[in-house]
Amino acid sequence: MFDFLRHNRLVRRGLASRKMRRRRARNELLRGLECASSVKVLIFAGFTAGLAFLIFSGQQPEPTKNFVIALLFLAIAMTQLWINQPSTFSQNSRVLLVFGTILVQLAVTKLLLVLCNDSTFRFLKPEMGGLIAPYAFAPLVLSVLLGRNHGLYAAVSVSLWSSVLFGKIDAPLLVTSLISGFTAVYLTLQVRRRSKLIRAGLGVGLAIWLLSLTFGLIGPISLFSPMANDWGMIGLQSALAVGNGIVTATVVGGVLPILEHLFQITTDISWLEASDLNHPLLRRMTIEAPGTYHHSLVVANLAEAAAEAIGANATLCRVCSYFHDVGKLVKPEYFTENMNFERNPHDDLAPTMSALIIIAHVKEGVDLALKHKLNQRIIDIIQEHHGTSLVYYFYQRALQQQEDARAGGKITNIREEDIPEVREESFRYSGPKPQTKESAIVSLADMVESASRSLEKPTPQKIEQLVNELIEERIADRQLDECDLTLGDLTIIADRFRFTLMTMLHSRIAYPRQETKFTVTRDESLPDVMAAIKKPASAPPVSAA
């Protein structure tokens, strides 16, 4: 409120612009709750209360003993999560997601088993409880949202709790839950289509069916007298077992968007949906900044290939590459790839002003991304893709002008202190530096693609030398200090960049012109417009931005 009034006062005095740049809203309360130890204690206390309710409700022998065993399993689960997944354990929202999903599966399993043992529902029989329990719900959800390690963690944990939750330890239930959970995780290692969830559900259903046949939950089946078998009941039980996995996967596919929104998680499915080139910003770019649009597409190909090679999120890199230079839409004509051949707008500007315009495209990109409610990871990469690097072209131009001013000052007796000082900080981006592998890959791909446009007659040797020199410059400038890329990763990335650029910049043979029956005559009285147009010699190189 006070900032708003202060800004209006400055506007009235002519000391500030009426335009307010959008800023990311930071909710300090939510940030505090995310790391508060008391919140974590409340989550585990709520999970313990849920276990107690499930164990002590209903008629089952020795509930106290089972509850103590369940508490021991909880202590083991907490310790394992703390040791193996410290980043997840440190975020209360992730802890809530993991244990909340497990508790939901346990509650649904308990409800289904109670309904099967209730005589009110005649179509449900006690032996059907093991066929319709949602064994793969938590493993599927956590594998897609948080990764396979969390899916395996959920499969083991929920199987142990399920085995003691309903009475004596049920070995067939334990084994069926473990194997179906592992199957679900294996079949969802890379889910980029929602249809793959259904295929994973079918695989889980087949696993449950085979295990049910093995443990005698389907049948009885007599191999020696097939006519004595109740094939109708066997078919119904088989359908329940296979349908169990399919229905579970369908439910997971329905709740995933809700969980993504609540816990601020973006899956590969959502990233693939976000890669649609019909987004309003990208459509604007095709018209207002076509050079930047083509540059972004090439950067996306480079970044995706490099990310796949080192095991990073390739789909995320592709989508973020599409939007990384969206800030150039504000002043597209000031960037080389969008300049026409008539004039260079930087000729009329001082190097410091040109650098300010070039550097401002990062902040303008964040502003447009916030306006269009783009994903937070996209906004982060827009901010980080230049790090704190130097706008080298205009920095050298400013130094040259300073030297020229000093040389002229000796003739006109200008004092040294009257010559404007050139500070390197004024020509550097504000950062921050890339914080993740994906952000660093997009940053490197952007730099390599821009510089590769200046190659004349590109050869494999020239491309390899260019890529290696640019990456070494970024390392020497300490732009990659805050991301977790290793030297081995950078070697692989350089190799993928080199290969991809070679396929895009390869030369083609000159085909002889085909002689046509009719010869097009040219009216010499008409002026040759294209011949009169020359590219300005002072245009900055493509890599200047």
Summarize the amount of helix as a percent range: 55-70%
How many separate domains?
A: 2
**Overall radius of gyration:** 32 Å
What is the CATH C-level name of the largest domain? Mainly Alpha
C-alpha termini separation: 36 Å
Q: Summarize the main sheet.
A: none
What keywords describe this structure?
single chain; 545 residues; mainly alpha; Hypothetical protein af1432; 2 domains; 64% helix; elongated
Q: Could you describe the 3D structure shown?
A:
With 545 residues, this protein is mainly α. It has 2 domains: 34-265, no CATH class; 273-507 and 538-544, Hypothetical protein af1432 (Orthogonal Bundle), CATH 1.10.3210. It is built from 23 helices and no strands. It has helices at 2-12, 28-35, 37-56, 63-84, 86-90, 92-117, 129-132, 137-146, 148-165, 171-186, 194-215, 231-263, 268-274, 280-288, 290-310, 314-323, 351-371, 376-384, 392-412, 437-452, 460-476, 487-504, 529-532. Helix 20 packs across helix 21 (460-476).
List the helices and strands and how they pair.
Elements: H1 2-12, H2 28-35, H3 37-56, H4 63-84, H5 86-90, H6 92-117, H7 129-132, H8 137-146, H9 148-165, H10 171-186, H11 194-215, H12 231-263, H13 268-274, H14 280-288, H15 290-310, H16 314-323, H17 351-371, H18 376-384, H19 392-412, H20 437-452, H21 460-476, H22 487-504, H23 529-532
Helix pairs in contact: 3-4, 3-6, 4-9, 6-8, 6-9, 8-9, 8-10, 8-12, 9-10, 10-11, 11-12, 14-15, 15-16, 15-20, 15-22, 16-18, 16-20, 17-18, 17-19, 20-21, 21-22
